[in-house]
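Friendly challenge for the regulars: who can give me the structure tokens for this chain first? No prize, just bragging rights.
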Amino acid sequence: MLLPSLSCRHKRRRTMERSAELRELPSLEWSEQETLVEAAEEAVLEPLADFPHIDLRTGVEPWDRRRAAGKTLRRDRPHADHAALSVGSDRPDPVALIEAAHEGRQAHLIPLRVARMASSPFAFLRGAAQVMAWDLAQGARGAIDVVMNGDAHISNFGLFGSPQGEVVLDLNDFDEVTVGPWEWDLKRLCASIEVAARDAGVPNGERRQAVLDAVSGYQHTMDDLAPRGSLDVWQHAARADDLAFTGIAIDAQSRAVVRKAVEKARRKNNRSLLDRVGERRTDGGWRFREDPPILTRVDQATRQAVTSGLEGYAETLPRERRFMLSRYHVVDVAHQVVGVGSVGTRAYVALLCGNSDQDALFLQVKEAVRPAHAPYLRGMPEPYASHEGERVIYGQRLLQAVGDPLLGWTTIKGRPFYVRQMKNMKGEIPVARMTGRSLTYFSHAYGALLAKAHARTGDAAAIAGYIGHDGRADLREALANWALAYGERNEADYRAFRSAIASGRLTAADDPQI
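First reply, four minutes later:
Bragging rights claimed.
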């Protein structure tokens, strides 16, 4: 599914031969350079070629040729182009973009979303994905697409359990997933490091070094993955107790942070969650303990709709998973407020029990909305584009090396949802712990993890050719300059957002979690 069609492969072989001939010429006119770039673009593999049959009789271009093609693309889009933040007079009002993102959300929760975004410039960045999507769309864009996360800020990397019971570190939020330029994900990661470090009072030089390290981690890992076999790329997961994949040694401070986070994640399971959020009914059964506005009960009609939605969701699971799920039944359903950007969307948590009332399973049923980058990109191919929940789950399965075995999607009251386990040894590396050596280490590690995710669907060889070996500094410097500029832009947008609250244009509620 990830390889181009037979006719495309033949065409690309011819264009690669043509580009090889052009490279032998001592000098090129502009028209010839343009032909060379077009030839290189034709050699790059599509991230999601949506064709009905897999052709196992014809190979693709060797990785070294595709790497050479990626290197050629620098002629059309030099690394220095990525340093510029294009913010013209036609830039929309950022508050208006955020207000537009509120459309379709639950109105009574929008003030809570506003309050969470107003808590810090980093929280604002997290909730203002639509603002950054517009900004990215105005800037430099390369020719190589991947299945992109769409929201790869540093708090969207975290810990979770594999089906084998290991704790892994990877991307863990995919609401914004789509097909687009790899550099947009990397730029959002770099900007988030700059903004979060500013919030923490990290000096400018250390912030810049952290951004440089994130790009270096991406660069080093993509270079390492370029010649590897596809099976190797797809199977390799980053176990939290063995982070050697980063290419740099983990320091004692970072190791301690990881160890503590892993220990905490291991304690997060269905049994511990039941003790924390469940309470006994008078008849001896379980129900959710209300904690408004974070966790609230739903009416009987909503409960029945969610239960029916879960029955439909079961049809999206592999047969063996359906068999396992059939051993459970829904005991209770509650509405849950999660995250920053997701506040206001419909999110439910269902408590199911199996062999006994101690055999608990928690499923999160979360509304999937149109991704922030949708106005600017072609998006996922059909049928994944027609159901936002399926888009999210398909993207997550593509980008994660290991994942939740109970991922699926459904429709409830005409709205698309996706389903996943609520607590599956999930945890986080607290941003507040990322100081000194740890900021450097985790920035590098997250850049490496992002490269691993992109290499699963994108053309790793071509991307590696474009970005160059990890000894090449010009892309790192360009993205560090961009991140610094975006940090200042985000500060200005944050001030405008706070002013909109002060003037009464936006209403912010009290948030018990702030």
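The first helix runs from residue 6 to 23. The longest strand covers residues 329-336. Your move, everyone else.
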